[in-house]
Amino acid sequence: MGPPDHLAWPFFDPTHRDQACAYERWAGARLPELLEGVDGSLDEVYACSARLVGALGRAGLLRACVPAAYGGARERVDVRSLCLAREILAAASGLADFAFAMQGLGSVPITLFGNEEQKRAILPGVASGERIAAFALSEPEAGSDAGAVTARAVREGDGWRLDGVKTWISNAGLAHHYVVFARSGEGEGSKGLSAFVVDANTPGLDASQRIEVIAPHPLGTLRFADCRVPADRLLGRPGEGFKVAMATLDVFRATVGAAALGFARRALEEATRYALKRRLFGRALSDFQLTQAKLADMAVAVDAAALLVYRAGWTRDVVGGRVTREASVAKLYATESAQQVVDAAVQIFGGLGVVRGMMVERLYRDVRALRIYEGASEVLKVVIASRVLEAAQDSERSAPKPPAS
């Protein structure tokens, strides 16, 4: 496929371009073998995911997920690097993108809020692919509303006791550790949450229940029953769990948009190639203006999504600070438009587009979940609107008052 055209944009430096080429080479050379048999049972999906993490780690491609001091590629975790990796891997394989993304999502909270001992114990293994990571926030009644978490963390002796249920947890039953959010009681709603690093072999943790979805990947439910966690597994301070979760999502929402961008870019390439070779009424499908209109809309969506995704990444990396609005805009637009691009590709393929195993059919299944996880589109609209209103109110308060008459 080749690296994305937008690598020439000023959002990137030469090391980003080198990184993109490395992911492209690896995906072309290794993924066909690593993905062999992945359309079989859920057991094979789990096994394949573990293989992918190990192979990404051995190739040095997971180093983008952690800082240089712990085996990473850059001094700090670089959002543009994460986005490039996800875009390129998603264009090649949804499962490969998943394997990479969860190494970041399950370790960035430790990078941002962990103490030195926690970082040294966990992050090098994440970068090498020897340690599989996971992030456990969602519950049966708490997904987009993180303040509704009911899993409880109670202080007992020199540690904590965790009880409750987490669900929709990627890498459930596969991870070596989970970043778990539980209600520790420092306040109401989101103010009363804390974050913990819980090892998979901790007594009282059951990760055996799996969930099968339309684009299979390791996904399941965690059950905590009298699960004792040492005090040194607390991330940050008690009551900071919501802060940990939101800071992590500030980083990763833009990368979800990047994965959607990868799916959309692949869909556009597949549809373009097919339209050029498919004959209809004695002409190439690409000769018809309706086909050209579809391809034009798809191309505009891909370029616009790329601009928003890498604006968010550049802002986080270069300007710094919170990028809640930029990341939310990027994820919202990129995921919603990718759904439309992939659907258009399926339409261009016609009947072949819904044949199981065809690339566009896989993309159709892969892209759907991105509009839900790490902030459903409807929730992101609320988040974006709140930032717009806050900015307007701040501007009004700071505006000079007219002199009294």
TL;DR of this structure?
The chain is of the alpha+beta class and 405 residues long.
What is the topology?
Elements lengths: L13 H21 L7 H17 L20 H14 L1 H12 L2 H6 L2 H13 L4 E4 L15 E5 L2 E12 L6 E7 L9 E7 L5 E6 L8 E12 L3 E2 L5 H37 L1 E2 L2 E2 L4 H31 L4 H26 L9 H10 L8 H22 L7
Parallel strand pairs: 1-4
Antiparallel strand pairs: 2-3, 3-7, 4-5, 5-8, 6-7, 9-10
Helix pairs in contact: 1-3, 2-4, 3-4, 3-7, 4-7, 7-8, 7-9, 7-10, 8-9, 9-10, 9-11
Instruction: Please identify, by name, the CATH architecture of the largest domain.
Output: Up-down Bundle
* N-to-C CA distance: 68 Å
Tally of contiguous helical segments: 11
Q: What's the SSE pattern?
A: HHHHHHEEEEEEEEHEEHHHH
Fraction of residues in H or I helices: 40-55%
Count the strands?
A: 10
The CATH superfamily of the largest domain turns out to be Butyryl-CoA Dehydrogenase, subunit A, domain 3
Shape: globular
The whole-number mean of residue pLDDT values reads 95
Description:
The chain has 405 residues and is of the alpha+beta class. The chain has eleven helices and ten strands. A four-stranded mixed beta sheet has the order 1-4-5-8. The chain has a four-stranded antiparallel beta sheet with strand order 2-3-7-6, with no helix packed on it. Strand 9 (279-280) and strand 10 (283-284) form a beta hairpin. Helix 7 runs antiparallel to helix 8. The relative contact order is 0.10. The model has no long low-confidence stretch (mean pLDDT 95).
